[in-house]
Every structure is written in structure tokens, then in C-alpha cells.
Amino acid sequence: MRHRITRRRLLAAVLLVATLATTVAGVLRLRVETTLDSFLPRGDPAVTALADNARSFGGDPIVAVLESSAPRGLLLGQGQLSALMRLEGTLAHLPDVAAVYGPATIMNQIAITSQDMIARLSGTRDGLRARAEDDARGKGLSAAAVKAAGEAAVGDFDRRYGGLLVRGLPAGLPTTSNPNFVQNVIYDGAGQPRARWHFVVPTANSVTVLVRPREGLDETATRRLVSAVRNAVSAAGLATSRTTVTGVPVITSAVTDEATGEIPLIGGLALVVLLLRFLLASRAQSWWRKLWPLTAAVTGSALTLAAFGWAGLPVSFGAIMLLPLLLGIGSSFPLYLGAVADRRKVVVVSLASAAAFGSLAISPLPFVRELGLALALGVLLTVAVTLVLGHKMAPPPRVRTQGAAPGALRWVVVVCLVVLAAAGWVALPRLDVRASPEDVASGLPALAQARYAEQVLGSSGQVSVVLRGTDTQSPDALRWLTQAQDAAVARFGDQLRPVLTAPDLLGFLGDQPTAQQISAGMQLLPPYLTTAVFSPDGRQALLSFGLKFQDLGAQAQLLRDLRAALPPPPAGDQVDTVGLPVAAVHAYDQVSRDRYPANLTGIAAAGLVLLAGLRRRSDAWRAMLAAALATGWMIAGLWALGQSLSPLTVALGSLASVTACEFTILLLDGARARRVAMWACATSAIGYLALVPSRIGLLREFGLTLAATVLLSYLAALAVARSGQRRKSRPAARTALPEAELVEV
Fold first, then answer.
1. What is the CATH number that goes with domain 457-589?
2. Which portions of this protein are annotated as coiled-coil regions (predicted)?
């Protein structure tokens, strides 16, 4: 019989095609970004200070570590200094570069200013002598007295500046083409780099070029800059034995590349595994009935990604988790609709799951908030699609089996399980939390390269002590900067390494320089160096220190001790510590401090929805109890195994409440729903386990932890449901349904 093309069917087809086109276009507009801001608490004072510092001095640098087999070969080798200077010039002219610091440019600037300084010093010295002698002659003094007046006039000058001339003249003409000048400025008598130049010449066999990007670069511009730096270094023609390009921008770009590449792979793996699960688990049914739960989940996930694309909102590396989680969790809701007679109950459960996921929005870290909101939206869209696609698939009638009242032994088991969960909740504050941005790159080659560079440089991060005031170039300010640097080095010299500081640059002025002498010294130094430690308006001065990768708890204590060791600033001035390590510590403190709220909020959010939507409120209370039990058991297991929490798993309660509440409501509904709960447990666990092949260690751990949490959620729901069973009347005879009307799992 021929199907007539009615106006209604035509309209439905047009709407379907339009929806499909819109979804595809939205997914193609989706951007994945892993900027540093997504791993730090937005609006935190430490993050704001980091951004302000970047505006004045540039962002965290891209670091190129160049090594040679011969000591001092990259600076004193034939033609190497010229090639290095060309490289630094090329890097300085790249788009989005705020500043470049390298040994060749430093040598060139020192050579130019040295020539000018020597000429000015000599001229100033001669002028002082001449004026003093003329004054003496004008007074009619003897020749000896005239000569003595001239010597006295230049005495103080010689004491202050003579050392520069003495050190400079034996090296010959101050020019980069003079190896003796380079040797004398950069290296000491033993051929080792002088301490003040360690930030660009860390060892005798290596040099470092630091490329500071302008502040506020998005991920696309950052990746483009990292690629340009790599290409420039490769084409420099330097005789290197090893080249390492690293730094925070490089690490975040590597995470973005990995995330972008893994989204289709991890999502495809989850899709294939779940496809096999539905094909193999379902009995003789039509292909549509076998695959419509997965179809609904795929559609809901695509609509979620399209929504982010059309809204112009980038997603962080959490997008890798989005597809496996939505496919695993979302494909369970069609099963619920096919097993639960009361569809309203399924809708309420889905809203509770969305509320639990949405509770991740209280996290201080943007990428966790993004993931929670995306999962909440994905659940709602998947359920909506399920209701549309499965509206003709009637659920079975309600069937309740006869339950037995819990006996004494069962109550003993329940009490033991509650005590174990309580122990886990008590142990929650004792678990370590890893909230450093570097942890996100765990398992990637970029982090291994960063750790190798740390061995060469002696540090991998940078923290700055910032003095803010009306004039940070005053004698009082310079005196404070010197005292602060001395205090930091004296107490923390084994952990902090001075990079480039104002006391080092102006050390030639002596211990008590006047304002005029400081001003003259600033004019003698190249702006290339002074702008690295003083802001252009003179209201900020930096003491920059390098530090190594370390546990965030130990790093937090180090920074607290550093702030405590600093002397009181000059009257009217302010002191702050700024840098990625400071911001990371603030993120660590916020995530650690919010452990109980992060876990309880999700349970409470899901429970409130269930209390408001379910006809039997006792079921809602049991669902919340199951979520609390599963969370406690998982925390206890992590504590017993010596594992730590991540920014993703610190909110285990919110994540466990999704599956625990679903399973509890199903197990309390009837025999058929119980069977579906078991299969839904397997389906959700498969979604999480699809993250295990990821090369990003944080995601692998998250997948394993959440898969175990799903299993514990099912066990908790089973324990709560069985302990809460009451003896019921015998079931009514079940109305037989055609096989086509049953939705098998």
C-alpha cells in the first residue's frame, strides 16, 4: 500500500532536515580551548594579579632551551652568537610577542650601553675635574692646590664607577664580535655562567631564550605562537646537540591538541562499545528497537555540542569526557522509559540527574563548571529526544514482586555498610588534592619535556615579589628590594632561584645610592633589561624567582613562608606575590576547602528534585541515602589505597548521586525495572571506562574512579532498596504485551 505524502509528513521531514543541518553546523563551530584561565579560579585575586602582571611584563614565557656539546659553544663558537641574535630578532618580531629575552640580545644591548657608558663616564669624570680645577684657579690657589681640588672632585666618582672601567677595559672593546668581552660579561674565571645571567645562560653548555606572549591570548593564537617559535628555532642554524621548547603555553597547547585529537577517538570508542552492548544484549527485535536508546543518546550529545558551538562558548579539554559520559548515562533513559510504567517518574529522575551534574557549577575551576553544565544540558536534551523518538513505545504495566521484611542479619549488614560510608566521609579531609594546572598534562610528552628543562634550568615555574607604589625607583624602594631579595635567598636559597631583579641590575650603584644616582644608572642600562623589572610608569618593581615542580601543599607553605620573611614595605607601598604558582595554590586552597560542599551539593540538589517530583517521598530519601553511601565507600577506598583527589573527583558526591538516585528509584519500582538498573549500571560504567585509553593521566584516573563509583552506586542502591522493602500483597496478573511493545535491554 502506497504511503501518501501528507502535508504533516512533509513538514516533519523539513523540520528533521533543518534540525540535522543546524546541529551539524553547530558542532562544526565548536571550539576546544585549554587556556590557563580554565584551570584557575575565575575572579580570584591571585588570578587577577597574574593578569595585571602579564599586561605590564608579558605572560608566562615560552622557553627554548638550546644545548651544545662544547662548553660555551653557543656564545663563543664561530658564528653562533650572530645566529643566536638573528633567532632572537626573529622571535621578537612574531605576532603576539610582548618581549624576548636571550643572551645574544642581552650581550648586544650591554655592548652598546657599555660603549656609551664608558664614554659618558670618561666625559663626566673629565668634566668634574676640569670644573674643580677652574674653580681653584679662579680663587688664586697654587698649582698643587688646583691639582688636589681636581683629584678630590673625581674621588667619589672613581669609588662608585671606577670598578666598571677597570672590569671593562681589560676585556677590550665592548662589542659582541669581541670574544673576550662576551667571556668577561657572561662567564666567571672558571668558565661558568655568572649568577645574574642564569635565566638566559643556565649552564656552560646551554642557553635559554624566553618568549613572553602578550597578555590575554586565546588558545588559537597561543598554538600559532608556539608553532612559530618551534619553526624559528629549527631554522636558526645553531650547532645544538638538543633543543627543548617548553613553558606553560606549550603545555596548554599540547593539552588542546591532545583533547582535540582524542574527542573523536574516545567518543567513537564509547559509541562502538555501547553499540555492541545493545546489539548483543537485546534479543530478537527490530534494529530500530535495539538501537533507539543509543540513537537518542547520540542525538542528545550532538545537540549539546551544537548548543555550545552556536553560543560561541569554547569547551575545555573536558569535552573529551562529554561524549562518553553522555552516551553512557544518556542511553540509559530510553531503557528507563521502556521499563517504568510511570513516565513521569523517569522525567523526574532525569531532572534529578541534571541537577546533580549542574551542581558542579559551584566548583571554583571553570573547566569543571563547564563540564557540569554541559552534562546537565546533555541529560535534558537526551531525555527530550527520547520522549520524541520513543513516544510510540508503550511502557509495561506496573509489576511489583513480593518483598520480605529485612531480618536481623540484614540490618547488621546495613549498619556495617553505613559505618564504612561514614568512615569515608570522615576521611575526606585527609585525602590529598591535586589541583595544579600541570597535573592536567600528566602523561603527555610536553610535561616530560618541561621536567627535563627543569633539570637544565634549575626551575620550572616563576613567582614574582611585586612592589607597588608611586615611585618604585626611589632609594627607599631600591633598598627594600635589596633587603627582600637577600631575605628570600638567605632563607629559601635551596628552593628559590633569583631570575632577574632590580638589585642585580643596579648593584653597581653601591649600597646607598641617591635618587640622582639611581636615575643616572637607569639611563645607563638598556631599556631592554630595565623594563623586565620596572613597569614603564615606575609604579611596579619585580623580584622574580624560579622554583621547581613540587607538591602544591608544600608549594603553598613555601609561598606563605616567603611572604612572612619579607620586610615591611616602604610607607605607602604595597607588596604582593604574583605568578602561576601563586594562582595554582589559591586554586588548591579553594578546591580543598570546598570538599564537603562539593560532595553534598549534588546529593542535595538531586534529592530536592526527587522530593518535589516523586509521589512517594520515602523513595527520594532512600535515593539520597544510596548516593551518600556510594560516595562514602568510594572515598574510603581511595583513602585506603593512598590515592588522591583531582578537581574532577573532589565532587564525587555530585557524580555518584546521578547513578545512585537512578538505580534506587528503578530498584524500588519493580522486577523489570530492576533488570534495567543492572544493565544501566553496565552501560554507565562502559561510558566512563572509555576514558581509560586517553593519554591524559587525569582523564584515565577519572574514568577508572567513576566506573568504580557507578558499581558502588548500584550496590548502594541495591542495599537501600532491599533494606527498605516491605511485605506486599501478591502481584496482579501481568497483562501480556506483544514482543514488539517491550523494550528489551
1. 3.30.70
2. none
